[in-house]
Specification:
It is built from 20 helices and 8 strands. It has 459 residues and is α+β, with helices and mostly antiparallel strands. The protein is flat, with a radius of gyration of 27 Å.
Length: 459
């Protein structure tokens, strides 16, 4: 389990002091930020496509997926994202979407280990949009519950044989199960004790304990018994092995799951099946040593092993499965070939662009975009080339907007758009793109230069 110890005290201190500003988390190219006003959560943003507001509203059912094209069209016409969404779905749906987005982004941060944190103080940095005014204690608890229920964080190794002790003093809006667990944790207790105490009022006692651990109110010690030592029915690593094999089942073949080669003889497949069925039969995980999540994992794995055996023991079913594997391999090879071709066209187009051969560059880059339309770098390069061709500015704008949709923190695309808008006399649109860059990167020299140029033109 990652070290989440700092998130709770940081946000609670900001809540107590009523701070306003942008709290940014960075992990490599991934960037997420919490928008704070007066110590409350005003909203959250992320550069990951799945956490964009429009995508979240589609997942909620508040916006039909085909409407994403209309959102892009409205933004081309000069509307902001939220303005476009409000015109299509209504203000209440957008507010619900922004709350869901904020909780989802904050929940994802519980799975980030040691991200780079920056705080930019002041309300002047915040975008002009709906303020959720969500109290940070409430947001913390809701996000921790979401992180646990969505399996963004997992039970610590040695959970079944471990022990728990009280920690921290944070007073948060607990539900009944969490309050019961805190009362029980006035003294150290084994996992098995706590599970029995919580089970009458909580469907998933292990999730309650994990929420308290995330929020710094419970400390877990793997394998340390309190009082009399009781030998676990299974080794402490059994739950971890279950998860590893489930991942193998999800991402591999039936042969991978049974740990046999694709050309294995029937008796080898039978022996592998019997060994796994004995090792992971759900009956072996029914004791109090194992939580609800472990028992559910055992059921899922046993079902997957049975399905593999059922398919591979039947010659006709096995032959059909082998044909599907071959077809999938062929499709994967085609996809890899397309990627190589798209990359070659992209590199060639970039070289032509650098030499000022814009028409030829655009033709090459159109090929890369056709093969990989969801690749932001290809869209950006094509937009750059077309922006320098007569009567192609509208098409260039579309490709640059798509690059930003795919990667909202693509500053070079925003700055190129600002230049196009400035040349077309669309100063407000240019200012909006430059302001967005400076909101994320206050020292971006090109954005500052364009900002100064626009101020000079205004005089």
């Amino acid at each position: 389990m990652a070290n989440h110890g700092n998130l709770t005290p940081i946000l609670l201190e900001m809540h107590r002091e009523g701070q306003s500003g942008v709290l940014r988390f960075e992990r490599g190219k991934e960037k997420k930020q919490l928008l704070l006003i007066g110590g409350t959560l005003a909203g959250a943003e992320s550069n990951l496509p799945g956490e964009h507001l429009a995508r979240i509203m589609v997942a909620q059912g508040a916006l039909p997926k085909p409407a994403l094209r209309e959102v892009t069209s409205l933004m081309k016409g000069g509307r902001g994202l939220e303005e476009a969404l409000r015109s299509l779905a209504g203000a209440p749906k957008v507010a619900e979407g922004r709350r869901e987005q904020a909780i989802a982004i904050l929940a994802s941060l519980w799975a980030w280990k040691d991200p780079l944190l920056r705080f930019y103080q002041g309300e002047g940095l915040l975008p002009d949009r709906l303020n959720l005014a969500l109290p940070l204690p409430e947001a913390l608890v809701a996000s921790a519950r979401r992180a646990v229920s969505s399996r963004l964080v997992s039970l610590p190794a040695g959970y079944a044989a471990g022990s728990w002790s009280p920690a921290g003093t944070a007073d948060l809006p607990w539900d009944r199960g969490e309050a019961t667990a805190l009362a029980a944790l006035e003294q150290p207790r084994r996992t098995t004790e706590l599970v029995e105490i919580l089970r009458p009022g909580a469907d998933r006692p292990e999730e309650v304990l994990l929420v308290l651990a995330l929020l710094g109110r419970a400390r877990f010690e793997p394998g340390k018994e309190v009082g009399e030592v009781a030998a676990p029915v299974e080794p402490p690593s059994a739950d971890r092995e279950l998860e590893e094999r489930l991942e193998r089942a999800a991402g591999g073949t039936l042969y991978d799951l049974l740990e046999v080669p694709p050309d294995a003889r029937p008796n080898a497949i039978r022996d592998a099946y019997h060994a796994l069925a004995r090792r992971f039969h759900p009956d072996r995980f029914q004791s109090a040593e194992h939580g609800t999540a472990v028992r559910a994992s055992a059921q899922r794995l046993f079902a997957a092993v049975n399905e593999a055996w059922s398919t591979l023991r039947d010659p006709a079913a096995r032959a059909a499965y082998d044909r599907s594997l071959a077809a999938g391999a062929e499709k994967k090879a085609t996809k890899e070939d397309d990627q190589k071709t798209a990359d070659t066209l992209y590199r060639s187009g970039r070289a032509l662009l650098a030499r000022g051969e814009f028409a030829q560059a655009a033709e090459r880059l159109k090929g890369s975009v056709w093969l990989r339309p969801e690749h932001a770098a290809y869209r950006h390069a094509l937009g750059m080339a077309e922006a320098r061709l007569p009567r192609m500015q509208k098409s260039a704008e579309g490709h640059l907007l798509k690059a930003i949709e795919l990667d909202p923190l693509r500053f070079d695309s925003r700055l190129e758009l600002a230049r196009i808008y400035l040349e077309a006399g669309l100063r407000r649109r240019a200012e909006a793109q430059v302001a967005e860059v400076l909101r994320w990167d206050r020292e971006n020299q090109e954005a500052l230069r364009l900002q100064a140029e626009m101020r000079g033109r205004r005089r």
